[in-house]
Amino acid sequence: MEELKTVIKEQGTVLPGNILKVNSFLNHQIDPELMYKVGQEFADYFKGLGITKVLTVEASGIAPAVMAGLAMKVPVVFARKSKSLVVKNDVYTAKVYSYTKQTTNHIYIEQQFLSSDDKVLIIDDFLANGEATKGLIKIADAAGAKVAGIGIVIEKTFQPGGQYLRDQGFNVLSLAQIASLDNNQVTFAN
Ligand code: G4P
Q1: Positions of the chain with pLDDT under 70
Q2: Are the beta carbons of 109 and 136 closer than 8 angstroms?
Q3: Fewer Cβ close by (within 10 Å): the C or N end of the chain?
Q4: Does residue 185 belong to any structural domain of this protein?
Q5: What residue numbers bound the domain in which 133 lies?
Q6: pTM as predicted
Q7: Which residue puts its alpha carbon closest to atom 4 of ligand 1?
């Protein structure tokens, strides 16, 4: 998606540890017009698959997921993060390790919001190691829901998540693919 790549070039900054900071339009402040177009791209690519729900994880997945849900006219469910699941009943859960933050979160979705009748589109802001996406797939599996596709705003192709998911047979669309952040430069793969 050319417009997205242009905004990344203009507004993104590279932080130590191969992190792309995009707080001006995706991770802190949100550009609704850009996110609207992101949602349209996902809806166009995944149309005709009988998707019944969009699934994401809080916080930064919510904006692109809502826009995809709006374009596809289906509900959006976001997994919540919690340090502990001791008091949670009637939920599907997965453990998600964040390499970036070096923390483990449990993510959960109330069982009433996902069922074996659902065909879900998983949306997330970043795909790096793929831990968040794997957690959402685990939750969909637990509910008996089918994963019809995975839509990612920014994939870092030099990290293994995307390759892993495609090797597993998932239909992954990444709107911007970053091949390298070396020398503080964003180099796209697509
Ligand atoms: P994953 O997203 O593929 O699971 O990889 P990883 O474990 O490395 O990511 C941990 C968190 O860091 C995730 O957000 C992910 O979206 C984010 N992340 C990974 N690489 C980058 C990057 O280059 N730039 C930015 N801005 N974020 C990155 P999270 O912990 O779920 O945070 P949030 O959604 O609450 O903001």
Answers
A1: 83-87
A2: no
A3: C
A4: no
A5: 35-179
A6: 0.96
A7: 131
